[in-house]
Specification:
Blueprint (H helix, E strand, L loop, with lengths): L1 E7 L3 H12 L3 E8 L6 H14 L6 E3 L43 H11 L4 E5 L4 H9 L7 E7 L14 H5 L1 H8 L6 E4 L1 H4 L3 E3 H10 L2 H20 L7 E3 L1 H10 L4 E10 L10 E4 L10 E7 L1 H12 L5
Parallel strand pairs: 1-2, 1-4, 2-3, 4-5, 5-6, 6-11
Antiparallel strand pairs: 7-8, 9-10, 9-11
Helix pairs in contact: 1-2, 1-9, 1-10, 3-4, 4-6, 8-9
Length: 318
């Protein structure tokens, strides 16, 4: 698979994705960069360090942008119902306090210098707002050529989660998302809510993870259970006792692309309008005239994803 940089705004699903990427033997996780999103930057960075420390990984962490690239604050009011996905984030993860610290170099500087100097292409996996990636591209657009592929957790075709139109990661920084999707990456995959909501993890799956009894499996079980409780409180049946683990679908895709099914289409990002800002406009028309720029995931194989997740989280670091 080669070298990977994971860009995160660590809440519960980012944590599972980090553990997967750090533990999979075919993934060379070079670094984890952090960004504002699920929580303020200081919290997402601390959470990232907690996760890596918990599984005994020494992958370096670089703190990135504390806000969107072009806006002060959010595009609109953040309306999450009590018991919704936002309740799963916001504060420190229920893991021991970190003993490691973030690197003194910022995430954007690290991305630019690493991609400028690398002798082999690197895969970028941003699973939070795209602020760091967009800023690095603004500094040096040529770094695009050092990227093997970009795998983004973000966007939606059928429905959003923060507004009827928009998915959270894109909505937080729509201008950054527009820049990244317009940058001309050779291979960019957009793992949308349409796909991740088909890769639901159950309480029984969490029980199986607990029984494996590794640091990663125990932590993942606790974090996914927290997600299930939040989803059940907000949605109830038919999703009761299940929850998506959005970001981990992206890391699973890296090693098994059959986890999702994609279509190569043109995607643009709406940056205006109170009801449409942050929407990923996916042109599915058979007579579409704009050139495709993203492999858009519409469906996912739940069993394939859960089996892979369980296998990888049964490993121990080192």
């Amino acid at each position: 698979m080669g070298k990977v940089i994971l860009d995160v705004d660590t809440g519960t699903d980012d944590a599972v994705a980090i553990m997967f990427a750090a533990l999979h033997p075919d993934l060379d996780l070079v670094a984890v960069t952090t960004v504002n999103g699920n929580a303020p930057l200081a919290t997402t960075t601390d959470n990232t360090l907690r996760v890596l420390d918990h599984i005994g990984s020494d992958v370096p962490v670089y703190a990135g942008l504390a806000g969107p690239i072009a806006r002060r604050g959010l595009p609109g009011p953040l309306h999450f119902q009590q018991g919704s996905e936002n309740d799963m984030h916001g504060g420190p993860l229920p893991l021991p306090q970190a003993t490691s610290t973030a690197q003194p170099v910022g995430a954007v500087e690290f991305l630019v210098e690493t991609l400028r100097s690398t002798t082999e292409q690197i895969t970028l996996v941003p699973v939070g707002p795209l602020s760091n990636i967009a800023t690095a591209l603004a500094i040096d657009p040529s770094i695009r050529d050092a990227v093997a592929q970009v795998v983004i957790m973000g966007g939606a075709h059928d429905y959003g989660n923060v507004t009827p139109s928009a998915e959270f990661n894109i909505w937080i920084d729509p201008e950054a998302a527009h820049m990244v999707l317009s940058a001309g990456f050779e291979h960019l995959t957009l793992v949308t809510l349409d796909a991740t909501h088909q890769a639901l993890v159950t309480r029984a799956d969490c029980d199986a993870l607990t029984a494996i009894d590794t640091p990663a499996s125990r932590a993942a079980s606790a974090l996914i259970t927290r997600r299930i409780e939040a989803y059940s409180a907000n949605h109830g049946a038919p999703v009761d006792q299940t929850a998506p683990v959005h970001d981990a679908v992206c890391t699973a895709y890296l090693v098994d692309p059959a986890v999702v099914t994609t279509r190569y289409l043109h995607v643009s990002v709406e940056t205006t309008g109170p009801l449409t800002v942050g929407r990923t406009v996916v042109d599915t028309r058979p007579n579409a005239v704009m050139a495709p720029n993203a492999h858009v995931a519409f469906t996912a194989d739940r069993d394939r994803f859960v089996n892979l997740l369980t296998t990888v989280l049964s490993r121990r670091s080192g």
